[in-house]
Amino acid sequence: MLSLHGKIVAITGASGGIGEATARLLAQRGAAVVLAARRSERIDAIAQDIREEGGSAATCVVDVTKAEDLQRLVSTTLDQYGRIDVLVNNAGIAPISPLADLDTESWSAMIDVNLRGMLNGVAAALPAFREQGSGHLVSIVSVAGLSGVSPSMAVYAATKNAVRTVHEGLRRESTDGVVRTTAISPGYVRTDLADSMTDPQIREQTYKNMDAMGIPPAAVARAVAFAIEQPGDVEIGEINVRPTVQA
C-alpha cells in the first residue's frame, strides 16, 4: 500500500456519509484533513474524533454554492498546513422527481450544488495547485447516466455527467502533469442522500434499494484513498464503485 502520510486533503460535504467516511479513513492512513460542510457542529465533532484518535483535522464552514466559501476553504487549508494536495468535491444533493412535475426549483438547486459547487472548487483550488506545482481534484459523481438515464433522474444525471465533462476537460488541459483528476461514481450507498428527494415514492424506493443492496460509505472512501495514494506520474481518471448485485 502506498502512503498517504503528509497528504493535505480538503473535503466538502464532510458532515456525513461518504465525506465523513473519507475524512476518517484518510486521517487513519496519515493524511491531514480539512472537513468542510454547512453543519459546523457536526464537522467539529468529527474532527475532534479524528484528533482524539491521533489524526490531524481542521474544519471550515462551507456552502459550496458560494464561491467565496470555497476560496475560504482553500485559504484555511493553506494557512493551517501550508499546502493543499487534494480537494475532494463530495457535496451533492438529489431532489429528483419526474420532469413532468416541473420542479424547477429543485433543478436549479441540483445545478447549483452538484455542478456549480464543483466548479467553485476548481476555481478556488486550481491556482493553488499551479503555484505549488501539483494538485489532485477528486469529485464524487454517480453511476447515474453511465448507461442511459433512469426515470425521474434526468436533471440529476445531467449535473453529474457535466462534472465528468469538466474533469475530462481539466485533464486535457493538464498534460504538464501538474493537476490530476479523478471522478468516482458510486452506485447505491447507504447514506442520507435520499432525504433530499422530493418525490415520496422515489424516496421510499431508493431507501428500499439502499437497505437491500447498498454498500457502506467506507467502500467509496477506499476508492478515494486508492486514487490519491498513487505516485505523481499515475492518474486514476475514473472509478465506478457499486454493489455487486446492482444492475
CATH homolog superfamily: NAD(P)-binding Rossmann-like Domain
Instruction: Give the CATH architecture.
Output: 3-Layer(aba) Sandwich
Question: Which word captures the global form?
Answer: globular
Would you count the extended β strands for me? 7
Report the uncertain regions. Answer: none
Integer average pLDDT: 92
Into how many domains do the coordinates divide?
A: 1
Rg from Cα: 17 Å
| Share in helix | 40-55%
- The level-1 CATH class: Alpha Beta
Structural class: alpha/beta
Task: Based on the model shown, name its key terms.
7-stranded parallel beta sheet, single chain, 247 residues
What do you see in this structure?
There is one protein chain. With about 250 residues, this protein is an alpha/beta fold. The protein has a single domain (about 10-235), classed as NAD(P)-binding Rossmann-like Domain (Rossmann fold, 3-Layer(aba) Sandwich). The chain has helices at about 15-30, 40-50, 65-80, 105-130, 155-175, 200-215, 215-230, and strands at about 10, 30-35, 55-60, 85-90, 135-140, 180-185, 240. A 7-stranded parallel sheet has the order 3-2-1-4-5-6-7, sandwiched between helices. The mean pLDDT is about 90. Pfam families: adh_short. Keywords: Oxidoreductase. Its EC number is 1.-.-.-. This is SDR family oxidoreductase.
Could you give a quick summary of the protein structure above?
Its EC number is 1.-.-.-. With 247 residues, the chain is α/β, with parallel strands linked by helices.
Q: How are the secondary structure elements laid out?
A:
Blueprint: E1 8-12, H1 17-28, E2 32-37, H2 40-52, E3 56-61, H3 67-81, E4 86-89, H4 104-132, E5 135-140, H5 154-173, E6 179-186, H6 200-213, H7 217-228, E7 238-241
Parallel strand pairs: 1-2, 1-4, 2-3, 4-5, 5-6, 6-7
GO molecular function, one term: oxidoreductase activity
Protein name: SDR family oxidoreductase
Family: Belongs to the short-chain dehydrogenases/reductases (SDR) family.
